[in-house]
Amino acid sequence: MALDFTAIDFETANPSTASACAVGLARVRAGRVVATAGWLIQPPPGHDDFHRGNTRIHGIRKADVAGAKRWTEQLDDLCAFAGADVLVAHNAGFDMNVLKRACDATGLACPPYRYVCTLQVSRKVYELASYRLPLVAAEAGFGEFPHHDATADAHACAQIVIDAARRVGAADVHELAEKVGVKVSQIAAPELVEVARVA
User: Fold this and answer.
1) Between the N and C ends of the chain, which has fewer C-beta atoms within 10 Å?
2) pLDDT score recorded for residue 84
3) Which CATH architecture has domain 5-186?
């Protein structure tokens, strides 16, 4: 086995986890980031209001996504990039909820991705005062980056897994999860519980 996975990060337009307005992805092969991608998304109808608080965090406004693909038009692009990889995300419950809820809101079947939470991993591997993404990424050797830029966040998340695996001597994501005592979860058919974003 090799350290192969895809890191993912979503930004949302408002408190609804269905309101995906940007996604970032980072593909890792054999412990190296080999590709990144990211794009804006028109949130699903009914979830497409942009709240000031969210815009203050990520800087994305309704006008910015006017020419972007809708969720129904770009889910295939996301799946094509991630393939059958295990997904990793910082506070993964939030990002997997975005994936699930946006699919629910548009009547699409949600891909049953397996995933690992780097917030959980980082709490097992590092001793830090805070486990916010920028601080964990810095500990993992990933320098300053534009936090809440979805692609940059995904890249940072990928580097956390790469560093954590190196520190514990794990050859792949499954071994990393086993060694640090976290679960490789899977998006299931029942709706996920809403998870507040803390990353």
Assistant:
1) N
2) 96
3) 2-Layer Sandwich (3.30)
